[in-house]
Model the fold of this input.
Amino acid sequence: MFIVNTEAALYKDGRYLLCRRSEEEEHAPGGIGLVGGKVELEGATSDILERTIAREVEEEVGLVVSGHMRYVCSTSFITDLGEPVVNVVFLCEEFSGEPYAVSADEVAAVYWMTPEEVYAHPEAEDYLKEYIRRAEDVRL
Done:
């Protein structure tokens, strides 16, 4: 069985919102990435991925996602603890508020970065660069 994870490619004014993960996180502590989290058990329901993104974005960076989210891609990986994960990324261009690190247990900092800044960032993993490239393809 897989854990299902969602991530939001939050885009505004030519930049994407990235977060630095807390050093307390079990998977990829201190890394930079998109905002997101695990799908929780809700029973029979619709739009669970979209609701998960909206919940995680608000819980982690204080933004309220609204409007249509566009599918970017899905991948799979194994966490640092050996757990298999399916990761689903959506492009989100409609949201309100100013981002900040809501919970220091999950997010240490937030950054707005252009795609070029992400591609050149020494701490940006290849998968993050690929998510941004694919989000740009969907956006354009």
User: Anything to note?
Assistant: Helices lie at 48-61, 115-120, 126-139.
